């Protein structure tokens, strides 16, 4: 049985990592040139 404290720490680390990944994706989408979105939209 892992200690409760260790589990909590793991969950916090995972949460932080997910937050960083989300922020990176959002930043990438915001920084992506609009032409990229136009190309993607025109393909569909």
Describe this structure in words.
The structure is a single chain. The chain has 44 residues and is mainly alpha-helical. It has one domain (4-41). It is built from two helices and no strands. It has helices at 4-31, 34-43. It is rod-shaped, with a radius of gyration of 18 Å. The chain starts with a helix and ends with a helix.
Any key phrases for this structure?
single chain; mainly alpha; 2 helices
Q: How many E-type strands?
A: 0
- The run of helices and strands is HH
Q: Tell me the helix content.
A: over 70%
- Give the count of structural domains: 1
- The count of helical stretches stands at 2
Global outline: rod-shaped
Largest sheet: none
Uncertain segments: none
Quaternary structure classification? single chain
């Amino acid at each position: 049985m892992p200690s409760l404290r260790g589990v909590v720490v793991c969950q916090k680390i995972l949460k932080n990592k997910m937050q960083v990944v989300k922020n990176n994706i959002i930043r990438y989408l915001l920084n992506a040139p609009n032409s990229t979105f136009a190309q993607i939209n025109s393909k569909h």
